[in-house]
Design a protein that fits this description.
This protein is elongated. It has a domain of 90 residues: OB fold (Dihydrolipoamide Acetyltransferase, E2P). The longest helix is centred in the middle third of the chain and has 8 residues. It has 2 helices and 5 strands. Helices cover 9% and strands 47% of the residues. Strand 4 and strand 5 form a beta hairpin. About 8% of the residues have low confidence. The termini are far apart. Strands 3-2-1-4-5 form a 5-stranded antiparallel β-sheet, with helices on one face. By secondary structure, the chain is mainly β.
């Protein structure tokens, strides 16, 4: 899922160690545009994802790609919006996937190459019924 808005707050980082190694969780809040703006909080896991939000100036328009997850604890449900990508957003500009823009300096995929359409010689007749 994707949503756009303005970055309005960075949440404090939380770090820890697990049997799988060191982990970092951060977060940020955006405010959507429109007649009834909404504030939406996201979490980001891993140093790379946490750094994405920190590299964008506060108040800038952003586009967030995320997954929504819910879990139950003591008969109560909790929903978490996990950001997989946050990037600057320019209204009216094509989305990064369409322009070949890659986050974190990754090379863009080469443009697809299409073969020329085959030519058919016409003898003045066609097979159209009208």
């Amino acid at each position: 899922m994707e949503i756009t808005g303005r970055l309005i707050q960075l949440l404090p980082d939380v770090e820890g160690d697990s049997p799988r190694g060191h982990w970092v969780r951060g977060g940020f809040v955006i405010e959507t545009d429109g007649e009834y703006p909404r504030k939406v909080a996201f979490t980001a896991f891993g140093e790379e994802r946490v750094a994405m939000a920190k590299n964008i100036p506060m108040g800038s328009p952003v586009q967030v790609t995320f997954n929504a997850e819910s879990r139950e604890f003591n008969e109560r449900w909790y929903t978490d919006l996990r950001a997989s990508r946050i990037q600057p957003f320019v209204p009216g500009q094509m989305p990064p996937a369409a322009t070949g823009y890659a986050w974190a300096g990754a090379p863009a995929a080469p443009a697809p190459q299409f073969a020329a359409a085959p030519t058919v010689e016409s003898n003045g007749e066609d097979d159209l019924p009208f």
